[in-house]
Amino acid sequence: MKQEIVLVTGAAGFLGSHLTDKLLAAGHSVIGVDNLATGNLANLAHLKHEPNFRLVEQDICVPFDVGHVDSVFNFASPASPDDYHRLGIETLLVGSAGTINTLEIARKYNAGYLHASTSECYGDPEVHPQVETYWGNVNPVGPRSVYDEAKRFSEAAVTAYHRYHNVNTHLVRIFNTYGPRLQANDGRVISNFMIQALRGNPLTIYGDGSQTRSFCFVSDLIEGIVRLSRSAEHTPVNIGNPVEWTIKECALEILAVTGADLPIVHRPLPQDDPTRRRPDITKAKALLGWEPKVSLNEGLKLSLDYFKACIDAAPVAASV
Ligand code: NAD
Ligand code: UDP
């Protein structure tokens, strides 16, 4: 594969940092851009002496230029519900202005462009499992809309830059992903349950725990994303693990993996919390020859040391 200069926005975040590692390992040079809104420099600490990597501290909502790049991976955005509720306007802006600014970079340098979209585009889905041709069921004025609608706008913008400017774009709809570097205190279910279990606190299930999610280990996701970026596909592609878990089953799996024997407590279900989510990955399998390899049990075991280190390093939110 040709060695490229790659721009990764959101490089200090969970997924952006893993993507950066993968691209560097393949011999590319990476320019990471991040404003540290939800990211963590510790995710990039191991790259301090890496000659093919540099980090630019920059808000992508402001037009910027890092010089010639061969491809752009746009991963900058708050991603956890706690984060995008706290940063609602910023989330709308990064999905709109930030996406346009990065598309302009791809247009200027004739670079490939991959955007990190989300299963949230399907909202609370009436079609199950979710297939890419389903248009979704999103409440445009609900509390999650700052994220969902920003991502739907991004998909429209990315598609328009392909349609009007012939930019070589790719759209990945990412389903819930976990692994080392998932922020311990950003409120997502895997980090909450892992930290609670390792601290000996009760696990907090929102609602009755019958809602479902499908959890993909980070290495599987990044492999699918890199394959998509090398493909000729411009329409959205689901990347996620199709094994579906109720949140209650997920809590029990985490208790089993951590060896903890703890009570489960119930908290109110957030408004518009999707009742079910599972990717149909037929398209990714056919187009990319991709499917996930890591089971939830294996992935949680691979994440244990990271979450233990988080507890040792710093206190996390009191509710967790
Ligand atoms: P994260 O919060 O760990 O990382 C996001 C990064 O973007 C952070 O480093 C943050 O500082 C940076 N950022 C936010 N706003 C910015 C701005 N205006 N300018 C520059 N940098 C900015 O989240 P993540 O889980 O790594 O998610 C990365 C991307 O993948 C996001 O776009 C998210 O919507 C998408 N995604 C993630 C998941 C998942 O399960 N992790 C699922 C679907 C989609
Ligand atoms: N959830 C939970 N307990 C927690 C955190 C989350 O029961 O401590 C639930 C949440 O209500 C949702 C699911 O777990 O139904 C996944 O939540 P997360 O925030 O990880 O991601 P989402 O898929 O909702 O964006």
TrEMBL record:
GO biological process: D-xylose metabolic process; UDP-D-xylose biosynthetic process
The protein's enzyme class: lyase
Pathway the protein contributes to: Nucleotide-sugar biosynthesis; UDP-alpha-D-xylose biosynthesis; UDP-alpha-D-xylose from UDP-alpha-D-glucuronate: step 1/1
Chain ranges passing through the membrane: none
Main location per the UniProt record: Golgi
A GO molecular-function annotation: UDP-glucuronate decarboxylase activity
UniProt cross-references to Gene3D superfamilies, sorted A to Z: NAD(P)-binding Rossmann-like Domain
Keywords (A to Z) from UniProt: Decarboxylase, Glycoprotein, Golgi apparatus, Lyase, Membrane, NAD, Signal-anchor, Transmembrane, Transmembrane helix
Highest taxon above the source species: Bacteria
Keyword Metal-binding included in the entry's annotation: no
Cofactor(s) recorded in Swiss-Prot or TrEMBL: NAD(+)
EC number(s) from the headed UniProt entry: 4.1.1.35
Topology with respect to the bilayer: Single-pass type II membrane protein
Domain NAD(P)-binding: residue ranges: 7-301
One GO CC term on file: cytoplasm
Keyword Lyase listed: yes
Family the UniProt entry places it in: Belongs to the NAD(P)-dependent epimerase/dehydratase family. UDP-glucuronic acid decarboxylase subfamily.
Name by which UniProt lists this protein: UDP-glucuronate decarboxylase
Protein's organism: Granulicella tundricola (strain ATCC BAA-1859 / DSM 23138 / MP5ACTX9)
Classification lineage: Bacteria, Pseudomonadati, Acidobacteriota, Terriglobia, Terriglobales
